[in-house]
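Suppose you are handed a protein chain with no further information: no name, no annotation, nothing but its sequence. What can you learn? This example shows the usual starting point.
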Amino acid sequence: MPANKATPVRSAKAPLTPEATASRKFTKLLEQIEQLKADIEKANEQITSARVFLAETLNPLLEMRIELQRELIIRLHTLYGDEKLTKRERQVTSYMIQQYAEELLRTGDGSEEIRQIYDFYAPVDWKTQTAQQEALQVDIFNEMAEALGVDIKLDAGDSETALEEKLQQYMDSLEEAARAHAEQGQKRKKTKKQLEKEAAEKQKNLDIRKTVKEIYNNLVKLLHPDLEQDAEERLRKNEIIKQVNAAYESDDMFTLLQLQSAYLSRHSDQIAQLPEIQLDVFISILKRQKEELQQELQMICMGDPSTGELFDQLCSLSGDRQVKRKRNSVMQEVADNISAKKANLALTETLERFQEGIELLEVVDTMYGLQLVEREQARSRKQGKRKK
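A reasonable first move is to predict its three-dimensional structure. Written in structure tokens, the prediction is:
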């Protein structure tokens, strides 16, 4: 029988000391913050290039598409008046005009002429329709506000400025209520637990102050330009010392810790030598900085209306290849739309071509749309008869 092989014994790794764990956290936070800053810089650069791409490349094509659509609406409107069209052809033409005109009016690209054409075919004119939709939105907002206990009420016809003023007034009232509540709470006798918490917080702030003063003194010693022999390095250190002094004098602890972090990131061998309390302060501040940078990046990519949609459609943190793919996709979509509009215009050059190719015109869900139009027309006729 073969002899059993001895199983090699793996030596267990020694657990990390609290100091080493904290040092790793500190280093990891520095790396994460550096990456976030790089992502923010990249996102801002892409937003800038996307605006240039939009202005110089995409907008001219979009304007061309809009002009083609306007021309198509006017041609269809002209053809609609021809007596040779059948009832069914008139229905299709009417539906297409409404769809194309409504698209332009909703995006703000419709002229007064387009609005008049739309009103000629639609069961409800554009002004009335817009007012009804705004009133419905106001009702929905007020119902939601009431359900959430928010003391704000919008009125139909409120301008954007009036809406902003009402929202600001409500936010001010919330802040005032919070202040009053806090003042009322301070007048009450505090429990032992609350007093202990306040004392701990006060001690923590004192520890931070002490640590910050030590950081300042260390930075002054390490970066003092008079101790530097190299002329170029002396100038660099002189600029940094100015920032250090300005941050300390203005009690800007965050900037001071940033400067210290920048020094330690270049001298990582000194991180483990930091006192434990100082390292804890650093980690706490860096965590806060990381959260702020994450929020800033999120605002660029999603939150800010001026950049969110632009970033989503034309930018990507995944790299230049993905950015190029996105922009090419948008360009192709617009180019295809322009080709379709040109093809539709070609079919409206004469009545004969229009009647022959009416089913080829690009219409989304034509039959369903016609059914809706027919029902609306029937409803309008019934209402008219009741009024008479």
